[in-house]
Amino acid sequence: MKANRQTTLRSSVVLSGTGVHSGKPVKMILHPADASTGISFLRTNLSNGHDRLIEARHLSVSATALCTVIGEADSGCVATIEHLMSALAGLGIDNVCVEIDGPEVPILDGSAAEFVDAIEQAGVAQLAVPRKLIKVLQTVRVDMGKSFAELKPFDRGFRLDVEIDFDTPLIGRQRKIFDLSPAAYKREIARARTFGFMRDVEALWKAGFALGSSLDNTVAIGEDRIINPEGTRWPDEFVRHKVLDAVGDLALAGAPLLGEYRSYCGGHRLNFMMLEALFADRANYALVETLPRREAGHAELGAGIAVPAFSPTVR
Asked: Where, by residue number, does Zn(2+) bind (predicted)?
């Protein structure tokens, strides 16, 4: 399969489960989509009897508290999209329509592994349209308290350098540098689960969050031990999950990024702020098109050719 061509699914695939925050059952169908349509969510089963199509773009984000939400509560929204978006981006899927009959993507086992399995079950189809990338042209930085994030030029793909620092020895300071590719994503990132602290559970419930959380979908951190009987999947599963979230949140750029993302003590809010900062100035980025290898005797333009920078509101 040529990496310079757009992709979609070969067939539709169904997933069902429960929302980790809403606690509500939900059915979701991933459908193939036409070239250059990107990822969109078709929200069905709304109280007004209408369906709503929501583009998975940073301009559609309405909340970033504990999860990423697109759309609006009064007209239709979808929460906790980051794990599904991460799986799609991690496997290099450009165009999908996600039909969903509830307010939140199912949490499944708390990682992206079951989404990866579903995508592979559906199969990947290559389209005849070239893939476009968002090339970072200059360093962009955002700060939020002790946390910060940067996007920097990097011509060899999309690299993530994610660091976390928690005041519990059960996590501590962890850092993961990761070059995104489908094989590496499946091997190193997809199975990393979401996590939370037992001390926060009651406050989250009162605020309407974590109503569907359980040891089946969350790594629960107690005062002096991991509550899950099986423990963690890796010693650094926590930072791997932060990489997973960052891949999903940054996929809301609307096209794959060509650059390096560095974050320290970040989360959904900081990832979203990074996209806002990137698109705030056209000097920060350009749209590039990957090209196949030229015939012998000609130089290969591996990173693509630059075309005029584009507004994120226009395809």
From this structure: 83, 241, 245
What percentage of the chain carries pLDDT values higher than 70?
91
- Residue 205: predicted pLDDT: 83
Domain that holds residue 71: 5-130
User: Does residue 116 form part of some domain?
Assistant: yes
Picking from 126, 105, 82, 133, the residue whose alpha carbon sits closest to that of residue 30 is: 105
pLDDT of the residue at 2? 67
User: At 87, which CATH number?
Assistant: 3.30.230.20
Q: Is residue 267 part of a domain?
A: no
Identified catalytic residue from 31, 50, 58, 268:
268
For tokens 């199969």, the residue is 123
Tell me, yes or no, whether 121 lies in a domain. yes
Diameter of the chain measured on Cα atoms = 67
Range 204-225 burial, b when 16+ CB lie within 10 A, else e: beeeebbebbeeebbbbbeeee
Q: Structural domain tally of the chain?
A: 1
Average pLDDT over residues 262-272: 98
Which distant-in-sequence residues (6+ apart) come within 8 Å of 103 by Cβ? 19, 22, 24, 26, 77, 78, 79
Residue 171 lies in a domain: no
Residue list for the binding site for Zn(2+): 83, 241, 245
Let me know if 268 is a catalytic residue. yes
Give residues with Cβ within 8 angstroms of 36, minimum separation 6: 6, 95, 129, 315
Q: How confident is the model at residue 309 (pLDDT cuts 50, 70, 90)?
A: very low
